[in-house]
């Protein structure tokens, strides 16, 4: 084992048995969990060994049930710690170490905290300088008040008002994605971060001022400088999500959970950065004819092999592939249950299981789509789309994606001009926030001789159509349900989809108004073709809305990623086929972005990780 670096903490001496099979390109961490030692391989870069200290392996979690904290629970367990849920204010006062992952809206969170007596307990716990980590809303609630549906009073421990990001200066709101921090003071829990990116998802933020400067440990720039973390004594809070920030995020949690195990400090100072462009791996999943849930991939949405058997193309197992993409450096993973609309996702227990298992080991954001709509089962039991989405969130999704039902909602809204508040989009974004709701648009290009041939937004295309047409519009499509009376009669093309009388441009503008926080922009013509993204379409939509747009469909080479980022305002680029067929590794995409000077999340540098003892 010559040359293998390792560190023991003084309080926890562990005998290491390192198999000679361990290569120098893996990282090993030893955790203490119920007095057992676990040797765990958690990364694939340099070999790093660390041991957790003998401090208590139980952390108290304040989860008031307003959203998904499964990922945080999974991250804590992954690091070898046990969780006890806070049930009463006394549990807070008795906690040795407390994590408060704020979820949902500021006002409703304060409401619950005040009604349950937790607000007073939290204030006294924090004033007594007890070990505390607030996450996201758990940071914002420490301030005096928030403008979110307000003003609403907060816990009032830190001077300042939490306000909304200003989108008028061209910055997309919500702020979704990976930024580096400007570290302003020693925070201990941030010691491994240096200039690595961490994951943010929020529309509101606290601003630095003279009154609160003694609390601030880091800021981040997104239009303005906002507070990314605070630290005073044992009290910490972060606006970003450590449980979704990959290895570097896990290091933040570990440093809070086990301060005695801290290794040497990463000397790289955080520097201001722009929002990194995201690279997303997408897994289209469906049940094949044998009844197995498989990752499939279409050509222009046709997912069946062109053989006599006409089987559903099978490219692998969802949980394994998602885990692989996380290790390969994907900034997000999306699952699209492509037949969910026809079948009803809550009947699809394997899909929920896939999500639960994936979230145990994948610590970047997970999106799931397919079948989010109201549904009545064979026994007459009605399920609202909100119930369907809630089940997805409970199972580990950070965002849900709505396709067909958003087309329906947009058509209704364009007809009536009335926001009913009843569409899945409106209901889910109201409860979970618009940053948790993606709308998936599935348009196909329709060429035109003249821009006046249709009532929808048209563009002059970069490459003329097959008959020399110079214009096109992008017609939205949606899935039909088997139960739909039109299932047999409507002509269905491209994976059982029907064309609708609404353009991608009109749909994008309307869904933004109805509460979408992000757009996943597919293109049926380009899907699976490997010839590059539809730049005309992505430019059209990313210029039309002020929420982030994910470019999808058609990636076939690393250059396609830089092209879409340089020629359009897309915030992220998603690909499926090239990753599944192992034609282009995610790392190559990132190396290419680096060469082109495009900011991206680099999780392959040797200075990264948890224990800071490097080869
Ligand atoms: O309508 O709310 O039930 O959602 C269904 C979801 O399933 C939608 O997001 C829709 O895009 C997706 N979907 C429906 N049918 C298909 C199909 O392929 N037959 N897949 C399908 C869409 C498109 C992308 C794909 C990219 C990248 N797949 O997600 O992964 O095009 O592929 P590439 O890099 O190989 O070109 P609802």
UniProtKB/TrEMBL annotation:
InterPro entries: Aldolase_TIM, Class_I_gatase-like, GATASE, His_biosynth, HisF, IGPS_HisA/HisF, IGPS_HisHF, Imidazole-glycPsynth_HisH. It catalyses: 5-[(5-phospho-1-deoxy-D-ribulos-1-ylimino)methylamino]-1-(5-phospho-beta-D-ribosyl)imidazole-4-carboxamide + L-glutamine = D-erythro-1-(imidazol-4-yl)glycerol 3-phosphate + 5-amino-1-(5-phospho-beta-D-ribosyl)imidazole-4-carboxamide + L-glutamate + H(+); L-glutamine + H2O = L-glutamate + NH4(+). Keywords: Amino-acid biosynthesis, Chloroplast, Glutamine amidotransferase, Histidine biosynthesis, Hydrolase, Lyase, Multifunctional enzyme, Plastid. It is found in: Plastid, Chloroplast. GO terms for biological process: L-histidine biosynthetic process. Pathway: Amino-acid biosynthesis; L-histidine biosynthesis; L-histidine from 5-phospho-alpha-D-ribose 1-diphosphate: step 5/9. Its EC number is 3.5.1.2. Substrate binds at residues 371, 522. GO terms for cellular component: chloroplast. PROSITE patterns: GATASE_TYPE_1. Residues 403-404, 440-442, 527-528, 553-554, 576-577 are annotated as: PRFAR binding. The active site is at residues 136, 241, 243, 284, 442. Pfam families: GATase, His_biosynth. NCBIfam families: IMP_synth_hisH (TIGR01855). IGPS catalyzes the conversion of PRFAR and glutamine to IGP, AICAR and glutamate. The glutaminase domain produces the ammonia necessary for the cyclase domain to produce IGP and AICAR from PRFAR. The ammonia is channeled to the active site of the cyclase domain. This is Imidazole glycerol phosphate synthase hisHF. It comes from Theobroma cacao. The gene is LOC18588725.
